[in-house]
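## Example record

The block below lists the input lines for one assembly entry, exactly as stored, with component labels intact.
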Amino acid sequence: MDEMQFTPSPELSIGVELELQLVRAHDLDLGRDAEDLLARLAKRKLPGAVKPEITESMIELNSSVHTRYGALREELAVVRDAVVKEAGVLNLRISGGGAHPFHNWADRRVFPTERFRSVLERYGYLAKQFTVFGQHVHVGCPSGDDAVYLVHMLTRYVPHFIALSTASPFYQGEDTSFQSSRLNAVNAFPLAGHMPFVRDWAQFLEYFEKMRGFGIVAGMKDFYWDVRPKPEYGTVEIRVCDTPLTVARAALLAAYAQALAAYCLDERSRVPSGAIYMVNAFNRFEACRFGLRGELVDPFEDRKKRIGEDILDTIADVMPHAERLGSAAALGRLAADVRRDYSDADWLRARHAASGSLQDVVRESSDLWAAQD
Amino acid sequence: MDLSFLPRLPIALSQPVLFGALLAAGLLGGEILRRYVGLPRIIGYVLAGVALGPHVTGLLDADALGKARVLIDLSLGLIVFELGFRLDFAWLKRNRWLFVTAIAESAFCFLAILGALTYLGYPVLLAACAASIGTATSPAVVLLVAHELRAEGQITERMLLFTAVNSAFAYVSLTLLLPFLHLQHSLDWVAASLYPVYILAGSSLAGFAVCMLMLGLAGWLGKREDRQFVLLVALVVLTVGGARALNLSVGLALLTLGMLARNLDRKHVLLPLRFGYGGQLFFVILFVLTGASLQFGALASATLVVLAFVVARFLGKALAILLFGHLSGIRPGGAGLLSIALLPMAGLAVVMVNDTVALDPAFGAQIAPVVLAAIALLELLGPLATQFALRRAGEAHPEAPGV
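Predicted structure tokens for the full assembly:
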């Protein structure tokens, strides 16, 4: 089947991918036991899938497709428990967070598959530096044209997803002063960034064919865009989130994406405009650097606003859709977190301030990941 | 003319001269073997020792080796401390089969050697002592090979864990057997039975006491790697000296200290241990001195017995790991490699043999040469075996140059 044929999926279905850190118990640095852990998990019947990622220090959880936030959250908790248990047998800890606070990228080893080896060959050290941990949220779309519309509209909200998930303040043993340092590792790739400003699916295909013709890409997976259409699944994929420190928060982010997509697709109150992409780089930087306390320029209203404030306004706008989708309480929780200025990045910094050791930060974040909520 | 300021001949060689000379010799030996023969450096350290030892040049005679005993104790102390520090009780608790495998690995190995030696006609008691010594894998070799290969992964972790467990098993079982040796010569059963109690309880208590001191001081010093490093070295050296002064087992005290420091550190005040370049010095010293103490005699005179010892030892370890390993989560094929990785015998075993000989001349006359020859063989082949196993397991770093 042609990869670029847009397979319609149940409207507003959601699914998440979570990249997780494998941490050695004895020194809390990253381990390299992905293969052993995956072999153990393969013997268990788990919903969704667990897959290798670019280096042996990571695994990726894929949820199955859901229409309701509650079911997604329950499933993630079940999978989390299973992964934590099997990891324990191998003396590994599992942690969320967008980056390991003190690992040395040069120690990383690329997972031995053809694809990952070719990534290493092409991108050199960038491939090993790509040992960062993100959450991707998929939202189902009825058609390619809807997907293109949704990509443009969600790009307006990219700073929200960054600010709500920031969890990588430390990198290579240092405080980066960023709330999310992870995206700086992504930015280095030549095909990072955003989808070009196309009007509809036909125009997108034209662009894609050109890029394929140039030999720049072989498929959609070669684009490392912040938000990209995934025709094969019939979804739009938001890729800017750091993996949060808990599955509960990962599920909240999915609920927000779903309600926001419902709002955009149902109300169509805005017409996509090139202005979205004019302000995008600035907004994105503010969100990475300052999180909820950063500022964004609203391309539709031509004014600056605190990101936290903009999120609260948006949650209010999408609430009717959340009620219909059964995630009103979830968005309420997310709003409460924004109001008290909570972020996982601040939590990590507070833990570091309390103990003075990044080892303790990893220990506590992996305890938090394993905790029942 | 008064020339009394000149040194008198022959020049008296002091401890620092010995220390420096051993280091330099080891370094050169290691580098020569690595560059021109392509063999692991460890073997070069050992061969440097052999060359200096009584069998070749005789530069290191029995007297010099006696003086160097403190260096051996210090090196072994630091090394078994580091090993003990990797023994994580929480892992054994989560993974019961791992605990079973570790115990079985020691027990089967002990029984296999005991069986082989008694079958070959050695007295049970002497065979049991030899089996105790044979159970231990060389902590120095496995730690150094893992470190130099930058090996990481399940086989490496288990190799270190099993080595910690079989070293503890060897210390404890040998200590429990010694009173029986003693009773062969005297009927003082009170002294004979108090002896192991004193050694076992005393050494663990010493380890426990220093551990508490270490945790207290580390908590007070805070999480600074530089300060904690000095603290660790200070307390380890102190424990080595203290254990010797009190006639306790240096190895057992330090192994206990390491294990307790890892497992009683509820507040996580200790940072992960990195001895770095400083630690390397002690590895080199230990291998050179062990090399000088090796005895190859029985390799020729009792070849069959030595081979039986080595083979039984390997089969005992392998049987346990093959039987239970997969239940503890070892990947298919990993059990065999782990058994190979655990082959090395070295300095720790030499010290145990020498201590046993000191207590019982019969052991020295009858069976020590066999054990020492087995050690000589495995000291030279062991590093190759461990390196092979970790490489084949895919756990050595692809860019690591080799041992």
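Chain B has a mean pLDDT of 89. The two ends of chain B are 56 Å apart (CA to CA).
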